[in-house]
Amino acid sequence: MPKSASTLSVPPPRAKFDKRRDKLLVIAARCFNEQGYDAASMRDIAREMAILPGTIYYYFPSKESLLVAVHQEGVRRILAKIEAALAKSSADPWERLSNASAAYLESMLGVDRDLCAVIISEFPRRHSKDLRAELLAARQIVDDRFRNLVADLPLRRGVSRSLWRLALMGQLAWTHAWYQKGKQTPGEIGRRLVDFLRRDSEN
Amino acid sequence: MPKSASTLSVPPPRAKFDKRRDKLLVIAARCFNEQGYDAASMRDIAREMAILPGTIYYYFPSKESLLVAVHQEGVRRILAKIEAALAKSSADPWERLSNASAAYLESMLGVDRDLCAVIISEFPRRHSKDLRAELLAARQIVDDRFRNLVADLPLRRGVSRSLWRLALMGQLAWTHAWYQKGKQTPGEIGRRLVDFLRRDSEN
Amino acid sequence: MPKSASTLSVPPPRAKFDKRRDKLLVIAARCFNEQGYDAASMRDIAREMAILPGTIYYYFPSKESLLVAVHQEGVRRILAKIEAALAKSSADPWERLSNASAAYLESMLGVDRDLCAVIISEFPRRHSKDLRAELLAARQIVDDRFRNLVADLPLRRGVSRSLWRLALMGQLAWTHAWYQKGKQTPGEIGRRLVDFLRRDSEN
Amino acid sequence: MPKSASTLSVPPPRAKFDKRRDKLLVIAARCFNEQGYDAASMRDIAREMAILPGTIYYYFPSKESLLVAVHQEGVRRILAKIEAALAKSSADPWERLSNASAAYLESMLGVDRDLCAVIISEFPRRHSKDLRAELLAARQIVDDRFRNLVADLPLRRGVSRSLWRLALMGQLAWTHAWYQKGKQTPGEIGRRLVDFLRRDSEN
DNA sequence: CATGAATGAGCCTTCATTCAT
DNA sequence: CATGAATGAAGGCTCATTCAT
């Protein structure tokens, strides 16, 4: 086959690069989630990926940048799942919140567990200021999405929407500490947790 | 004063040892809380304590044992505060839970912040099996106390007490991620969070 | 020379790695021999090798593994020398033992002094069970070779071959404690020591 | 009892001191023998003695001085046993050497095993010059005793008495590497080893 | 006599990172 | 693209030793 022709049939440039980068991201997320960011070494990640440690630096300039990328990818996937759920929802604000919560936990406790869990198990206090800002910005996006959903709720006058939202987020996040695959699906748990906070707060 | 009586006022043996050990505990807790267990080095702790790194090992045989001791002391203080609050409470189960939650957050977000926060910010997944068992045992004690309080509540039939309790614990624990000294006191926050879950769930 | 033939002369893969690893082995052996295993620090070894301490771990995963490798290499060299000497020997069992003893001391007191001496100057009592097993296994190989040579000797009835062998091994090993380059060569010493035990024991 | 009288009945001054010092010596010897000089820590020794580490320094100014004292005591006991055996011996030089060798191994492999074994298992190469001198001086005393015994033997002309003696000493010392309590007593082994070297060498 | 407490140097090891090839 | 090799700092921890009490 002539060389010039092959360029037409190959996937777009950097496709291979992006594919390996994505795989690296997932593996790094798993390591971070299983061992903690500090305890997970670049060697661990490289070993799981079956490459040499130095090679990681071709895809990411530093360990911190890996962490940021994991956060961002986690947020991306959560948001995608939430938006997909909302797209199928009615206009009822409680149903919308319920669906969003279910989607959130499906990401967090399901297939994307590692990528998403890093978002809540990493307390960024210890990191450098720049890193901290990036991590918090990523989380902020999910927070904002829920803020909007809560804003639409017909809560009773006097109920602090901000505290109410934090209560819900706490319930959802904490599942990471106790959930084990069992009788209830992540989605069911998400709906029930919303229900706990629901009727009393209603107008 | 007769000499025989003095034995009552004499400080117990190893008083100096215990005092420094306690101080070390508090400082270690602060370091763990600020930087994370892995990122906090024994040298950091020693520097804050104004002693040489080796000296820590006179008080604790290892870094892990320090972590365990911090957990245990944190649990001890939380429980003491909760029990004190319950002693002043009426028999009303909702009031009792409300007071306990307030006490819990007063510990967690107040003076004992560092000691107590380690309990929830440390995800023991990455540690050795023995260490993990000890850390989880410490947490279990607080969990059990709340389990008892929830058992006394007149919840509506069909509400899972175990999920309900996890919802509350999640709300409380998550305050650690967002609380900053401000208009609401930790105690007030604790009561409000209980209220969010309250009336709808009642019988 | 045709290219196809060059595969024979090309250095095997990882040639550089192996070369430096071997050099490290020799230097470590010297340090162990001069200062004792415990007293010889990885820093010492690194300094002699003109590398940083951490670099050693690229070649050996631990200090203990270095010790094991030194033992194994020492045994390998001793055996090679002994077999070479036996290959040139007649069938006379006394001559064979004499040649083997000479070869043994030529290794132990000569060029391979450091590598080989570790074998007898390291009393493995203090090490972990696994390490001890590996060290003893290495020694066993040399022991077995001599056991075979002794089995062929026409010793008088009633002479315990096992004690007789230990007597010879003791004489040979102890040279490490007193030998200094001087008038007698290691080989001569080996032959004389065998002679001391020889004629009286004969059939 | 009046205080003044008690001074008459108590053991000579420093008797208690000496007794504890001796016990310390024995315990240190055991630790050195079991773990090696470097690996045996002052803390280990103190623990076995049921005192605090600092207290050792009341009896010995340093770890090295402990080693020297162990060596000296080991040599003292070996020599005492040898002299006692010689006192009961005839004038026959072979019998005298045989008895001395038996006595030597009875010390080395028997009750005084720890104290005496340190003498041969410690290769002083690694120590400071002064320490080395003291250790070698202690060994020299035993060496000299055997040198005298060998000088009296009617060896064949042409046999190097010095090499012959080193051969014997090697056989004896090496028992430390293989002896285990079993069918043969240390004394029997000593006599047999001398026999191995005997008749052929005779005039 | 003996202790409790501390010291400071040093140990083995691990790590994120770099860079010539 | 990826590797092999090295770096240098830092990690947890142990040690012989000291000294006021």
List keywords for this structure.
homotetramer, 203 residues, mainly alpha, Tetracycline Repressor, domain 2, 73% helix, 0% strand, elongated, disordered N terminus, DNA-binding
CATH architecture of chain A: Orthogonal Bundle
Strand content of chain A: under 5%
Helix content estimate of chain A:
over 70%
Count of DSSP H/I helices of chain A: 10
Instruction: Tell me the quaternary state.
Output: homotetramer
Rg from Cα of chain A = 20 Å
User: Could you spell the SSE succession of chain A in H and E letters?
Assistant: HHHHHHHHHH
The tally of strands of chain A reads 0
Which chain pair shows the most residues in contact? A-B, 35 and 35 residues
**What composes the largest sheet of chain A?**
none
Tell me the name of the CATH homologous superfamily of chain A: Tetracycline Repressor, domain 2
The tally of structural domains of chain A comes to 1
Mean pLDDT of chain A: 89
Given helix and strand content, the structural type of chain A is mainly alpha
CATH topology of chain A: Tetracycline Repressor, domain 2
